[in-house]
Amino acid sequence: MQLIDTHVHLNFDVFTNDLEEICQRWREQGIVRLVHSCVTPSEFPTIQALAHRFPELYFAVGLHPLDVDQWTEASAREIHHLATSDPKVVAIGETGLDYFKASNRPQQEQAFWLQLQIAQRLNLPVIIHCREAAQPMADLLRAFWREYAPVAGVMHCWGGTPAETQWFLDLGFYISFSGTVTFKKATSIHESACMVPEDRLLVETDCPFLSPSPERGKYPNEPARVHHVATQIAKLRGVSLEHLATQTTENACQLFGLTLGSRTPPPPFPVSSSGG
Hints:
A divalent metal cation 1 binds at residues 7, 9, 94, 206. Keywords: Exonuclease, Hydrolase, Metal-binding, Nuclease. Helix content is 39%, strand content 16%. It is an alpha/beta fold. α3 (75-83) packs parallel to α4. The relative contact order is 0.17.
């Protein structure tokens, strides 16, 4: 059985001394590919080094909505350059809107719009963070679709209602569920996990956050625990874990342009001396 964890943050200091052991555990659980998200372009050299240390790890570049105070006139050019500097970059993000922790809505929307433009130009998917912003997010995406063209992507760590879920399905997005889908009281997330078509479903850990049950509350979360997420979704949908794993792995490969081949990870690409 193979799984793909479509959203990790392994560059946190909490992982520094244990990455080899963490890697061994994800390999033992059949995690054959991982997608490392990016909070700010300044992380790029560190994430790139990890992607070449662990051949099954691919990554994104972008600016998180809670970090848009770092956005400058040069940011879009920088993200575009970094996204084309390494063949292991498979997405733009994470980007999006977060109205739960910040009130700088115009700045978030501008940075998100410009990152959508980069994704559209480069034909890369976007990894979208959306918290307390489903309606404005859907409105902005519809506006972008009208002015430019649809962009592929994923609503990551999804926690919206079934009605909100349908908005983003209608826009062509994949929906990714994290450890929150294993929480007993997360009934709305459970309903959303049941309604997503099987060819648009993804799984993730969002590690080091959101450890799933039965590991809930244990920090840091790690990629090996994505099997708990997959197990819960399979139970909710009334399918076998093997079926769920096969389908979500195919979906991740489709969205991010990943290939599997043999179980053995491919050799790493050379890392540029400039770090991108």
